[in-house]
Amino acid sequence: MNLSRRAFARSCTLTATGRALVGALPGLAQVQGEHFNTATNHPVPAIQDIETTEQKNARMQWFREARFGMFIHWGLYSIPAGRWDGKEVPGIGEWIMNRASIPVAQYQALAAQFNPTRFSAAGIVGLAKSAGMKYIVITSKHHDGFAMFDSQSNPFNIVQATPFKRDPLKELAAECRRQGLKLGFYYSQDQDWTAPGGAAYKTGDHQPPTFHWDPAQNGSFAAYLETKTIPQIRELLTNYGDFPAIVWFDTPTKDMTPELAGKIVTVLNQHPKLIWNNRLGGSYQGDTETPEQYIPARGYPGRDWESCMTMNDTWGYKVDDTNFKSTETLIRNLIDIASKGGNYLLNIGPEATGEVPQPEVTRLQEMGRWLAVNGEAIYATRPTLFGDEAGSFSSTEKDEDGKPKFIPSWKWRSTTTSNRIYIHLFEWPGATFHLDRLPRQVTGAYLLADSSRSPLKVTRTAEGVDVAVPATAPDPIASVLVLKTE
Ligand code: GLC
User: Fold this and answer.
1) Nearest to 195 by CA among 232, 162, 163
2) Where are the domains of the chain?
3) Atom number of ligand 1 nearest to Cα 142
4) Is the CB–ligand 1 distance for residue 34 below 6 Å?
5) Which of 75, 138, 187, 371 could be a cystine partner for 132, CB 3.0 to 4.6 Å?
6) pLDDT digits over 114-173, tens only?
């Protein structure tokens, strides 16, 4: 899509407003909200603009096979944990400074209290690994501007401004290397509520054009980019060895013109293995679509994508949010996403002590137990060969955008490899599982949970098959039926 500069700026304003609502009101976070305008011509060509398909496939390979990653939102906001002046602040926890219009100096003062001595990189990476996750993406700097890493270019960081004095990113990088996971860094390149010139989304009575609430936030966006964002991105890309594998940008605004974004891309281009998402701004499409808090009805054929989701209703820790999804929902989400060719980036929000809330630990361990048996049907698989099993678009009901509403069905999903079709059964079919049509010849069937792989009886019907299954499901959440198709 080629947009004139004015049309581009206008569409970004709209996007920014829509996203502000998504960020601010958790209820709306479920809305299929994000749309980032992209173009193919950029002042500075990005790697995606110039590489061959083979080069792209090689660069994306580990990510496409991974399917499951851990998002970590952790920063100063975990200290107030969603409460300010004794009251719960509505909305997601990491937005507390914006939602409660906390003055810059008062927010910065939180750093002196930040001493997460119970943080354990080995513990968190071990938790991700035992959950069956293959990568971690952690907030290196969120919209509050506080760097969770050792930064020479700006003193508002965990090493210089807190009694903790350690660099958790360095510790996580070492542990990820040791335990065999990839590590990525989330970086809020555009919004920064404590740096002069950093952008802010509107909430409450914040006024245009800047939506700032403290004169200390005023300044030039271009200067903020030159003096903070770009130097910090350089630090993140050079101080952690072979990591980050991913840079995860967020909340672009109209301030991020194609020219300014091009300056960031110049830095990114020096790291040819890097994967980065579609949220840089300046019309760059990046590598990945980033549906937030939802699973797209049909995936994004032809694009890599990753659904990022919370376990409760906040990214950053909030003491009052105990609205946790069930393990059943989380496992089904993972399967649904894999069946559509995407990755699941599932969030944890550690506390100010560094500890991971117990409900999150429990759910991750339960997911890990399921994946230990059924991971073969998730990792490095291809999307379904069918499609309609995911649900259908309503002919009468409309979604928030006025488009036909997608009504998911939760009977089964499918993933594929070159010689297997995996059927993830949410509803146990009784004595026989029937498929009307089948694009491949089935040469055998067994249950993935059955370590002896006893063959199940397969009967070919007109165009499909009947598979005789035992009376009860091996797993109450999802049992995987394997169809051999050599
Ligand atoms: C939103 C929020 C942010 C969160 C991100 C995760 O854009 O602004 O707080 O980090 O979503 O996808």
Assistant:
1) 232
2) 5-377, 388-485
3) 10
4) no
5) 371
6) 999 999 999 999 999 999 999 999 999 999 999 999 999 999 999 999 999 999 999 999
β-bridge partners, 346 = 70, 309
Share of the chain above pLDDT 70, in %: 92
Task: Give domain 5-377's CATH superfamily.
Answer: Glycosidases (3.20.20.80)
State if residue 23 touches ligand 1 by the CB under 6 angstroms criterion: yes
State the Cα–Cα distance between residues 472 and 430, nearest whole angstrom.
Answer: 7
Q: 315 in ligand 1 pocket by Cβ < 6 Å?
A: yes
Q: What is the pLDDT of residues 403-424, one digit of tens each?
A: 999 999 999 999 999 999 999 9
Which of 312, 315, 318 should be mutated for ligand 1, with most atoms under 8 A from CB? 315
